[in-house]
Amino acid sequence: MQSEKIIIVNENDEEIGFKNRDRIKRNDIYRVSALWIENSQEKVLMAQRSFKKKNSPGKWGPAVAGTIKKGEDHDSNIYQEAEDEIGLKDQIFDKAHKTKTIGSHKFFCQWYYLKIDKDIDYFKIQEEEVEAIKWIKKTDLEKELKSNPDKFLVSMAATLRKFKKFEK
């Protein structure tokens, strides 16, 4: 199976080329889309990455996230990823903020937001990508991020702070 072509960008998020996913290096910068989902009970939908993932296996992060591939933009990517990863379709996401992450990976992330009241059984996870999902109260998430930060993607504390300010 041929590796997917990932869009590579410069420090200003300008497209400069493509690379096979398996050839991405530490200094490459790419684009990601992510979806933050909340419900009316002040809970956030979290997804645990599959333990089979190469990067950050088993870590908890946003409900949906995906790397932008050749021929995609942020919008097309996030709607496809939401349907593929958690079975979410026929929803309209609000475009939120864009972040830049510099760590073991470098990427620009376009965030999206959705407020929806659905039981956990409503969602259908894609097992190759997602190990588990759960609703968690924002206050409990804050405590968990402080006491067990290694369970989460490194960007989760900053992401929670950003979305505490994002009201719909």
Summarize the structure.
The chain is an alpha+beta fold. It contains 3 helices and 9 strands. β1 and β2 form a beta hairpin.
- Shape designation: globular
CATH class: Alpha Beta
Portion of residues in beta strands equals 35-45%
CATH homologous superfamily grouping: Nucleoside Triphosphate Pyrophosphohydrolase
Q: Judging by the overall fold, what is the CATH architecture?
A: Alpha-Beta Complex
CATH topology: Nucleoside Triphosphate Pyrophosphohydrolase
Order of helices and strands: EEEEEEHEEEHH
Radius of gyration over alpha carbons?
15 Å
Low-pLDDT runs of 5+ residues are none
Number of strands: 9
Any idea how many domains? 1
The helix content is 10-25%
Protein topology:
Blueprint: E1 5-9, E2 15-20, E3 29-38, E4 43-49, E5 60-62, E6 64-67, H1 74-86, E7 94-102, E8 106-115, E9 130-137, H2 138-147, H3 156-165
Parallel strand pairs: 3-8
Antiparallel strand pairs: 1-2, 1-3, 3-6, 4-5, 4-9, 7-8
